[in-house]
Amino acid sequence: MKIRKMLIVLLALAVMCSFPAYGAPGETRRVLDVWGRAVEVPAEVKTIVCLGSGAPRMAAYLNAVDMMIGNEEHDAKNLTVLRDYNPVYYEALKKLPVVGAGGGSGNNNGYPEEIIKAAPDVVLAGFSAEAADELYAQTNIPVVCVRYISNNFADETFYSAMRVFAEVIGAQGRCKEVLSFIDSCKKDLGERTSGIPDSEKLKAYTGAVTFNGRHGFAGTYSKFGPFLGINALNVADEADKPGYFEADLERVVVWDPDVIFLDPGNMDMVNDEYATNPSYFNSLRAVREGRIYTMPSFNNCGMNITYALMNAYYAGIVLFPDRFTDIDIASKSAEILTLFLGENTFNAMAKGGLHYGTIAMGK
Predict the structure, then answer these.
(1) Alpha-carbon distance 82 to 265, whole Å?
(2) Is the pLDDT confidence value at 92 over 90?
């Protein structure tokens, strides 16, 4: 381990002798990342490495995967639908050298010596500012932060991160196309469900969510993104702060939601809970009436914006059927996936466990 650390330092020092701080050879320009860090990058960026939460995904959304000259270990290991871009780009990505572990923590999970060997013009990272500074100190390659949060509904942090990424690689036109499409979806969803008083809405609960890992029935959100998009009545919104939390099970009984949405990828956990205490679950009206629907996970190393939009449309179909009579979830999903990724992976999602439909506990 000491030899490995020494090698990293020596490689970094060798590079640092040639270039100024935050610098790059030749003509440069300065960009401000999402944390306000001023980073000198080449005037024309031709090669990139994407690390950490959301960065590879944004490269896919911006049609820039062909600029990547390094891959994260978790994308190289196996094809997975949990990250929306992976099924589309897996064959290309797995051929690249592995330059980082992957993950959504915001910590520095890059492999400095491998990044130095790959020698990208810029590293785009879903890191904290401190983690980015650390990786720069290890490699002397510009590190631009493009981290965004995974709460809410494709909020301004995502827009900001996309604009920074696009500025670095010169993809402002494509960025505008993607963000305009998100805006159009938000507008459509909001207008379909505006003006409905809460007294006329079905009470909804989403459980078994995936956020920083898998969770059982009590894992839920207040200010849940797909629900926010359709002005849904989320019983968990009585929580003080937005985001993930573990609901008190007795409180869920008091809420007694009309409709329950569950992450199909975590149904093994829910079914174990049901087997242990079936009387609890059967006390819930939605369970007794069979009004349980899937809500595929949309968080994995950052938010899959595609899946979040699809989930909002599906929740709208379930909760406001008279307002979504013209929407077929397969067709709408195909539109969203093709716009963002250039390919309709809806069937691949279903085969991988991310499907839409009713679901039963204990089976």
Answers:
(1) 10
(2) yes
Written as one string, the DSSP assignment of 204-216 is EEEES--SSS---
CA angle 95, 98, 102 (to 5 degrees): 120
Q: How confident is the model at residue 241 (pLDDT cuts 50, 70, 90)?
A: confident
Domains of the chain, CATH where assigned: 2-170 (3.40.50.1980), 195-351 (3.40.50.1980)
Residue 175 has what DSSP assignment?
H
| Closest to 65 in 3D by CA, of 51, 48, 52 | 48
Query: How remote is the C-alpha of 126 from its chain's centroid?
Result: 11
Question: What pLDDT is attached to residue 8?
Answer: 41
What are the helix (H) ranges across the chain?
2-16, 55-61, 73-77, 86-93, 112-118, 129-139, 156-169, 172-193, 225-229, 249-255, 267-276, 278-282, 285-288, 305-319, 329-341, 346-351
Per-residue confidence at 4, pLDDT binned at 50, 70, 90?
A: very low
Residue type at position 298: F
Q: What is the pTM of this model?
A: 0.91
**CB 193 within 8 Å of CB 230:** yes
CA 255 – CA 251 distance, rounded (Å): 6
* Dist CA 195 CA 50 (whole Å): 42
pLDDT digits (tens, 9 = 90+) for 263-320: 999 999 999 999 999 999 999 999 999 999 999 999 999 999 999 999 999 999 999 9
Tell me which residue of 278, 295, 296 sits closest to 287, measured CA to CA: 278
Looking at residue 267, its pLDDT comes to 96
Lowest pLDDT segment from 16-25, 203-212, 219-228: 16-25
What are the tokens at 43?
């005037």
Helix (H, G, I), strand (E, B) or coil at 144: strand
Q: What is the largest CA-CA distance in the chain?
A: 70
